[in-house]
């Protein structure tokens, strides 16, 4: 039986301790993680027994899901809350001796139980128990539900930064084409969107044919995430995708070593949407070469990417418009990008792809490590559906919106959406080059139409500011 996510959401909202979507998702994730991990441990225990070995659980037996949560008439009320609080204390102080215990520690060490009612918590647990993750069909179907849960992060305040719309991650991965023998990295992996799309791509392209291939896939798809909530969401996401030991580090990619990587430390593929518009803490930037020192996170990640990518490696990255036209550190980054890499494609995304989290317009940059550098850059202006001015929360970007650019990708010609620019024609490293084939609609509009459009835009801005004011009051 499948989980009714609407019913689950309704149950949790009646608890006084849950305040908003982000807390509800954090609450859900530790429970889903424990249930999934318990299923994994059952599988590992059976395998160990068949091999004549004794299996040692990474989680104390009394805290394994099947011990305290599986019985729908089990612990409830104040007794359940007290038990969970003690469980959190113990798992946060678990004695880490191997990678499995490290995973449990990392998931719990900065996670919280927000629910105050043991009765409502029991109802939540019983609803979660309707999914049997021992059954592949249930696990597969729950992937889609989990993706919908992750999508809710976009409207969960600042938590929206952790989620990249799946049509975007799928497109980037399909164009970069990771291979099973290659090491693929997302060093700001959030909830794991690029990583799970990479896993799906490897399987759907028939690259996974044996148990050895499964091991390669698990070892070669790597992520790094700094913040607790997306890290826990990512770990659970990869467990749902059949990865026994997710290869995810819980740390800040921008601290520690950021240059001078050996061949073994470098990776073949990077697919990522690094945080942008943020400011890193003091001291982080000093680890970078002087010409790349800045507090802007997107710039630092771009500098790291160019160091981390192996010879002949390739990347697909989401970046805001600002890096295309910016100067200073941004110019230094672009100078190196054009000299040491082949920046072959920039897909310009329409407004609202990350709505409602942010209205910042973004681009997809695709490039390969190449000592010959960049000779020419193809641009593609992703078009909006007819009659739609921007993507929104209610009309989000869809997989089908990438159909035309996919058709164009391997048979490139200039058209209304695509154009090519020679590097020698680029001035002052300004990559913010507008579509020369696109007619400016204001050129064909009457004065009255222009004024009417300006009025509508003003009304939209007033509505946005009004909503923002209400949010600040709250």
What is shown here, in short?
This protein is of the alpha/beta class and 474 residues long.
Order of helices and strands: HHHHHHHHEHHEHEEHEHHEEEHEH
Determine the N-to-C terminus distance: 39 Å
* CATH fold type of the largest domain: Rossmann fold
Main-sheet strand order equals: 3-2-1-4-5-7-6-8-9
In DSSP terms (H or I, runs of 4 or more residues), the helix count works out at 16
Instruction: Assign the CATH architecture of the largest domain.
Output: 3-Layer(aba) Sandwich
Assembly category: single chain
Helix content: 40-55%
CATH class of the largest domain equals: Alpha Beta
Mean pLDDT: 89
Unreliable spans are: none
Strand proportion, as a percent range, falls in 5-15%
Main pleated-sheet profile: 9 strands, mixed
Number of strands: 9
The best one-word shape is globular
User: Structural class, from secondary structure content?
Assistant: alpha/beta
- Overall tally of domains: 3
The CATH homology group name of the largest domain: Vaccinia Virus protein VP39
Rg measurement, Å: 24 Å
Relevant terms:
about 10% strand; 3 domains; Ferritin; Rossmann fold; about 475 residues; alpha/beta; about 45% helix
Question: Would you kindly provide a written description of the structure presented here, covering whatever features stand out?
Answer:
The chain has helices spanning 5-13, 21-50, 65-68, 77-92, 99-108, 118-128, 136-151, 166-176, 193-204, 211-220, 228-240, 297-308, 322-325, 329-340, 403-409, 447-473; strands at residues 184-186, 221-225, 248-250, 267-272, 309-320, 341-348, 362-369, 376-381, 418-422. The longest helix is centred in the first third of the chain and has 30 residues, at 21-50. The mean pLDDT is 89. By secondary structure, it is α/β, with parallel strands linked by helices. Helix 5 (99-108) crosses helix 11 (228-240), helix 8 crosses helix 9 and helix 12 runs parallel beside helix 14. It has 16 helices and nine strands. The radius of gyration is 24 Å and the shape is globular. The protein has a nine-stranded mixed β-sheet. The protein folds into three domains: 5-132, N6 adenine-specific DNA methyltransferase, N-terminal domain (Ferritin), CATH 1.20.1260; 148-425, Vaccinia Virus protein VP39 (Rossmann fold), CATH 3.40.50; 442-473. It is 43% helix and 12% strand.
